[in-house]
Design brief:
heterodimer; A: mainly alpha; 2 domains; 3-stranded antiparallel sheet; B: mainly alpha; transmembrane (chain B); membrane (chain B); sodium:proton antiporter activity (chain B); PhaG_MnhG_YufB (chain B)
Chain lengths: 164, 117
Amino acid sequence: MTRLLPYPLMALALLIMWLLLNGTSAGQLLLGAVIAILATWAMRSLGPSKPRIRRWRVIPVLFARVFVDVIGSNIDAARIILARGGRTQPDLVHVPLTLRDRTGLAVLACILTSMPGTAWVEYNAASGELLMHVLDVEAEQNWRDLVKERYERPLMEIFGETSE
Amino acid sequence: MMNAAGLPLWAALLTSFFLLLGATVTLIGCIGLIRFKTFYERIHAPTMGTSWGMGAIVLASIIFFTVLGSRPVLHEVLIGIFVTVTTPVPLMLLSRAALYRDRTDDSRKLPGSGDKG
């Protein structure tokens, strides 16, 4: 099984992408599957780290949470730009992260970048400390808690670091 | 050939709503780019365009072509996924470059380098 499908998730994602682009039919399903499997074989020589997803159920919860938060963050940023003429108290905030999984960190970077209120600036892999820029700091501790409680914890559950 | 006039009213309203929403959000982001004064503040403005600006326009496109073609057209979702996944890369590159510049210039109060350890 692992010989035929070294990266089952990636193969599945490629197949879905193929079907979305070309339309769903039996022929496309077959062709897409063949291409997806061949592409994952090619990826094997690159040897990317394989994410181990432990808890699938947390993913939709996190997704919905991010979806709602992005809307809120957009409204906040729009208000700052239009009503306050861009006058804010921007600041850099240090967030000590416990999350070490690379895929998890990548997802966290995507989440923080998608929010207009926050931007990922720098991550120190040795100390696990994230430096992020916040558009409007009211209380630094609140932002730290927001990142740790709302996003880091579900990510750690998904990528299964709590058990280690 | 698909005819836009054949679109039912509710779909037309939904499509226009999301299209205008996306365009407005992106426009506000661009205004922010001008109004903000420092580089770090400016990083935030364009992400409005890549989050809900892009999202709403993609949604409008999905509704429009799904109703017209009377079958689900979902490949726009791929645009959303790829924009979301690729935005952090140039953004981190730019902000790290700015951070490096400011640390070397010593022009403003900045936290110490994360790479020193």
